[in-house]
Amino acid sequence: MLLINKTLLKMSKGFRGYIALIALLKLLTLAGIAMFAQSISGFLGGLFDPGSVDFRESVRTAFVSAVIILISEVLIGDVEYRCTAKSRIVLRERIFSKILLLDVGNIEKMGTTHAVAAAVDGIEAMQIYYSKYLPGLIYCAISPFYLFWKLKEASFTAALFLLIVSLILLPANNFFRSVVRKLKDSYWVSFLNLTGYYLESLYGLTTIMLFGRDRERAGILETKTGDFCRKIMGIMRLNFKAFLFSDLVIYSSVFITVLMVTAQLSKGEISLASALLTLMLGYGFFGSIRILMHSSHQALAGVAASQNLSRIFDIDTGRPSKPFVQKEESDGFVGIRLENVEYSYEDRDGVLNNVSIDIERGKTTALVGQSGSGKTTVSGILMRFFDPQSGEIRFEGTDYACYEPGELRKKIIMVPQFVSIFSGTIEDNLLVAKPDATIEEMHKALELARLKDWVTGLPDGLKTDVGDAGAKLSGGQRQKIGIARVLLGNAQYIIFDEATSSVDFESEREIWACIGELSRMRTLVVISHRLSTIRRADRIYVLSGGKVAERGSHEKLMEQNGIYTNLVSEQAVLEARGVNGEVAV
Ligand SMILES: Nc1ncnc2c1ncn2[C@@H]1O[C@H](COP(=O)(O)OP(=O)(O)OP(=O)(O)O)[C@@H](O)[C@H]1O
């Protein structure tokens, strides 16, 4: 069983030419070595039989072959480097495009740390496979036959013996390789486990320190590191045994060849030049196998990594798609209509049950309910982060499945609970939404988001650096930049998913004032735990256990004296205790 991995081969599209070229150059080096050995053995043999050899010709051939070896070796280094660089670019491009296709709703199927490990360390591990192992394998399959062909005239018996041993040696190593392969798989799992835990600890360092869990974490990290080290040591021990076994076979075979050649020479069956040529090229049968063995153990890491990568590539990112057929709403409704929508996460059934919601264009619709009632899931479905398992959604009369997610997001946009800010300037972060936005447009959006005065008061204004992932911004400033970004996009429908839950009171007041102003210009879907802020919404949906329990205006819902009334009273008690402040849409 040679290490020909289908997934890795499939992934090599785009740089296969480099792999073939490396193999070709390796064969050219071998031809140079054979030429050199032939001229040197001929030269030395000629010393005892002066008339039989043209010495000047031998020296010239030796020189030419040395030049060939030198040039092909230099070229091998260069092409190997190019192959590594190209495969890195091609594979990273592919994995990042796939990750982008996975979209928000699918990212959990893979896990962020797995994506990082696959895209960085996984691809590093695969380099050896492409730049060393595969060319080595092609070379190994051809070189023993080439050497046999070169030596058959000199000593047929020795050449045949060396060919047979070299052909047996490669499969014999499979025993070791299959064990190493198993170890490598568990090595990779252990590696991902360690990297994932390390990254998670790094991201959550503040929380870990706050709760005094640093020693406990350090202990677990040490255990995981120990496990990883044991896996590496296991592989190294087995590698050592494999090399010991192969070297024993190789050097025994070379020794037997020496005996065979010496016997033939003493019997006068072959000339001194033939004996020397056989001895000089004999080791060449195994040199290639040794190199291959060396890279095959490293290539196994690439195989293990590629399995992880192929799991990511295999995630189905297809979305239901329908031809675009405009359908008139019979009752003249214009907006987004969810009808009998059902949704379950991969490992959680019945998160949304038979949910029907109307989001009327130009109006403000609020979604409220206890934590875990399904509000964010509804917003994810509205953004087409994921599609419902059953039910219908229509956007202004057209089935949602007629729109590509990207197309839909130009019409419907969201301000999430935690806005992502990227390192760079305030301007860079705004241009994410509209790369060709003018300064005036940016200022207008910032003004609506109640951030213009602060930005223009800064010495660098829009060019102010926000730090790594927005580290130099307050929670309120982050959310306001997120809102300004959304406003630049001109989407008619805006979803605010708990957009003020992580900001200070003053920012919250300003953001709600902004939302109030926006409700006169755009269609809003507001998800908020703060019921006092959504009182003036045109329609409020109360979700409970993944179902729409109540719907109507604030006044109508209060009259019903149901879940909504209870939620309002509970909150009034909290607000009276000063837990929440009072703000309004
Ligand atoms: N990715 C996920 N995988 C599995 N279950 C999930 C996932 N996301 C949410 N859930 C579950 O789905 C249910 C609804 O979650 P959702 O986030 O929609 O509620 P919510 O009303 O927005 O809650 P909150 O107000 O606390 O944000 C919860 O029981 C939650 O545990």
TrEMBL record:
Keyword hit for Transport: yes
Membrane topology type: Multi-pass membrane protein
Boundaries of every ABC transmembrane type-1 domain copy: 19-301
Record domain ABC transporter: where: 336-570
Keyword Chaperone among record annotations: no
Gene Ontology cellular-component annotations: plasma membrane
Protein name in UniProt: ABC transporter ATP-binding protein
Originating species: Desulfocucumis palustris
